[in-house]
Structure formats: C-alpha cells, structure tokens
C-alpha cells in the first residue's frame, strides 16, 4: 500500500485530496460493503461521495452495462442514441419542469457549468446569485460560484457572484431566529441585495441541502419564498440536485420539492447517484431556456450508450424497489439513533439531515468552535471499526457526512450507528 501511495504522490497533483493517514485502496464491493487491498471488509456509509446510490455491483446495472458494451460503447451525440432518448424521457417526466428538455454531461460539475451557460445566455447577464457555504463543482466557472473557501482555489471568475444568506440554518447572524423569522430575514436580505446590485442577475443557483458544506439546509419553503422575489426580477432558479436528487432525502424525489409552493425551478442539475458509479450528469430545463443558445453544440461523452444503459437500469431498480421510501424509513431510524447516541457526547454539536443524508457536526465543547481535528480523528476511528464515512463543512471541515447506498437495511444502519458511537466516544 505504501508503494502505491508513493506512486500516487509522484504522478498526481498535491491538491488531489485523499482520506486517512494511511490511504485506502478499495478493490471491490457488493451491496453496502467494500473490501480493501488487504482483504478487510467495510460497511460503506459514503458510497463514493453519494454516487453508489443503490448498491455496489448491483446485478441489474452491471448486466445492462455489459450487454450494451457488447453492442457499441460510443457514438457521440451526433447520432441518434436510443438509450439516451429513453433516459431523457424518463428524467424529463420525473423532473416536474413543464415542457422539459434534458442535456446529458459526464459529471455534476459539467452539469452546473452548462446550467450557468444557459442562464447567462438566456438572461444576457453574467451576474449569478449563489448561497454562502455552497459547493457546485471544480471547473473554473463552478469554482467562481462556490461559497466555501476550502473548495475555491481562486477568486478569479468569468462571473460576478453575489452571495445570499439562507443555506445554513444553525450558524450565522440569523441562527437564533425561528424558522419563519429566518425565512423572512433571508428574503429581506435577498431583496436588499437585488436593490443594490447593478444590472439584472441571470439566476440563483442553490443546493436544497448543501453537500460539501456539511449537509446543512434552510427551513422548508425558503426557496419558494425566494422564488417569488426572483420572479419579480425575471431571475431564473437553478436547483443543484447533484446530491439531493433521486429520493435520497426520503421525503421528496427532488430536494426542490421541499420548497414547491411557488412551483418548480427553471432548471435542475443532476449527477452522481443516477449512474450508480457510471459517469452521468445532466441539466433539465424548460424548452425556452434550454433552446436559448444560438449556436451548435454537442457532447462527446455525455449520453454515452453505456452510461445511459446503466442509468436506465438503475432508475428502474430505484423506482421498482421504492428506494425513496427506504431512505425515508431507514434514514429516519438512523438519524434518531444517532441523535440518541450523540446527546451524550460533548464534542457533537448537532445531528442533522433528511433520509439517508445525515451530518454530524463536531465542535470544541468549551468554545463551540468547529473542530476539524475531532472530525479527522472520528473518520479514522470509524475506519478502524470497519465503517467508511465522509466529512465536510463550511469554515472548517468539521462535519461527518453519512450517505449510505439507498438499499441500506435496518440491521446495517444499527451496525453503522454502533461503530460511530464507539468512534465518537473515543474522540
């Protein structure tokens, strides 16, 4: 393993993040478990950053990929592509966006990049509203709207970005307000910002639940209230569903549906889980927005026949087995179990989340300040106990991120909670 790590460091960038003091090589997986190069088995509570949505080595997906690869692997969007059209029809119908069009990419970063291109072209403005503590990808454009300094390596950008309050409920100047007061204050902040900004903003882009930011979310209905203000100015709403899509939050198929009182977004972006590990991303937009580009474009790898076959098989499995319902049921049990455990652990400030998207925020018990060292220690201790989790958070990476495959069983949820209890108690 040390030899592989040395080879990694000699040919890959220093800024390519690796978990663990002794980095882990995962060689194979099955269901909710993976194995490392030494043959050790782990319960996977992170799923390749929320990407292995259903299960490792899901037979229905691997069969679809194998069969399609045996026919043709690649053709590009210059040719009619039946698997791509099949999946686009299904995603458009599920999106909730009227007269929807779908464009496939290879990642969430590229999907958000495309949504920003569409919004700025449609509105003839390079001004974007984004949320504080947000993360939208690693491209030059996406970094320019990311409100999280740990994942924003440059202040240069082709966009003018204005950051809005509301993505973080439990910290900041409005934290002590009630939910209704919080929403009212954030809406007032948005109105004030728009009143001072010169020119018309193109769009607001927002994650219904912030992923890299530590699984934080506003009160339900905040973005519906924002939507009313945006409509007054003709500003589009982009819902970044890269992590919240496909029923992971349990209560809703899309994260935006917790804010549906003012209707669906103008665009939503997706990626990660729909491919169950295959590289699929995409944008759904109303036809007038999607068709606002006045030049040709293609996608060389977006909509690949193989990845589309995987997406179709994975979506069928998700819907037929009601994995959204499983996320709601098992996720609800898991979050309550974790809250009961963490109530007795001083380093834990909050257990939050929805469905199978759960964050545990760690702090210094004496000061209440973010505690990245404790989060790093808990990550290592969980691995030692046979559990893989993630971490994230705003100013400091101090939130444990828990997002298992959505087929998680009650027994596996209990097993993971027990490992986490031991890991956190030792921090």
Can you give a write-up of this model?
By secondary structure, this protein is of the alpha/beta class. The chain is 37% helix and 16% strand. It is built from 13 helices and 15 strands. It has helices at residues 2-11, 47-50, 59-71, 82-95, 108-123, 140-143, 179-196, 222-233, 287-290, 305-320, 323-342, 372-384, 410-425, and strands at 26-30, 33-36, 41-44, 100-105, 127-131, 160-164, 203-206, 236-240, 267-270, 281-286, 348-354, 357-362, 387-388, 390-392, 399-402. The strands form 3 sheets. Strands 4-10-9-8-7-5-6 form a 7-stranded mixed β-sheet, sandwiched between helices. A 4-stranded mixed β-sheet has the order 1-2-3-13. Strand 7 (203-206), helix 8 and strand 8 form a beta-alpha-beta unit. Helix 3 (59-71) packs antiparallel against helix 10 (305-320). The longest helix has 20 residues, at 323-342. The radius of gyration is 21 Å and the shape is globular. The mean pLDDT is 95.
Count of runs of 4 or more consecutive helical residues: 13
Shape: globular
Counting DSSP E segments of at least 2 residues, the number of strands comes to 15
Through-space gap between termini: 26 Å
What class, by secondary structure content? alpha/beta
Give the H and E element order. Answer: HEEEHHHEHEHEHEHEEEHHHEEHEEEH
Percent of sequence in beta strands: 15-25%
What composes the largest sheet? 7 strands, mixed
**Which range best describes the helical content: under 10%, 10-25%, 25-40%, 40-55%, 55-70% or over 70%?**
25-40%
- Contiguous low-pLDDT stretches (5 residues minimum) are none
Strand line-up of the largest beta sheet: 4-10-9-8-7-5-6
Give the radius of gyration. Answer: 21 Å
Average the pLDDT over all residues and give the rounded result.
Answer: 95
């Amino acid at each position: 393993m040390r030899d592989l790590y040395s080879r990694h460091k000699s040919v890959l960038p220093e800024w390519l993040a690796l978990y663990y003091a002794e980095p882990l090589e995962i060689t194979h997986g099955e269901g909710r478990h993976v194995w490392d190069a030494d043959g050790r088995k782990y319960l996977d509570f992170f799923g390749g950053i929320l990407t292995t949505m259903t299960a490792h080595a899901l037979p229905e997906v691997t069969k679809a990929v194998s069969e399609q690869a045996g026919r043709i692997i690649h053709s590009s969007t210059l040719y009619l592509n039946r698997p791509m059209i099949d999946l686009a029809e299904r995603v458009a119908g599920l999106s909730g966006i009227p007269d929807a069009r779908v464009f496939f990419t290879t990642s969430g970063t590229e999907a958000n990049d495309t949504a920003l291109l569409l919004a700025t072209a449609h509105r003839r403005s390079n001004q974007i509203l984004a949320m504080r503590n947000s993360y939208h990808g690693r491209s030059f454009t996406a970094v320019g709207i990311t409100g999280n300094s740990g994942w924003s390596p440059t202040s240069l950008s082709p966009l003018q970005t204005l950051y809005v309050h509301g993505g973080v409920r439990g910290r900041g100047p409005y934290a002590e307000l009630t939910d209704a007061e919080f929403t009212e204050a954030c809406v007032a902040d948005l109105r004030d910002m728009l009143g001072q900004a010169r020119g018309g903003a193109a769009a607001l882009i927002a994650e219904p639940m912030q992923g890299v930011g530590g699984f934080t979310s506003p009160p339900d209905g905040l973005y519906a209230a924002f939507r009313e203000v945006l409509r007054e100015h003709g500003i589009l709403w982009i819902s970044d569903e890269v992590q919240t899509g496909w029923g992971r939050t349990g209560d809703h198929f899309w994260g935006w549906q917790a804010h549906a009182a003012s209707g669906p977004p103008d665009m939503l972006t997706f990626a990660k889980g729909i491919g169950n590990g295959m590289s699929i991303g995409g944008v759904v937009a109303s036809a007038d927005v999607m068709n606002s580009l006045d030049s040709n474009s293609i996608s060389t790898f977006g909509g690949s026949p193989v990845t589309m076959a995987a997406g179709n098989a994975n979506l069928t499995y998700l819907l037929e087995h009601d994995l959204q319902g499983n996320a709601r049921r098992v996720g609800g049990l898991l979050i309550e179990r974790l809250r009961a455990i963490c109530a007795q652990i001083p380093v834990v400030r909050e257990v939050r989340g929805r469905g199978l998207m759960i964050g545990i925020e760690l702090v210094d018990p004496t000061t209440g300040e973010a505690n990245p060292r404790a989060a790093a220690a808990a990550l290592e201790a969980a691995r030692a106990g046979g559990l893989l989790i993630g971490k994230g958070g705003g100013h400091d990476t101090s939130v444990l991120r828990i997002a298992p495959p959505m087929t998680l069983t009650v027994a596996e949820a209990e097993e993971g909670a027990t490992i986490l209890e031991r890991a956190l108690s030792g921090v």
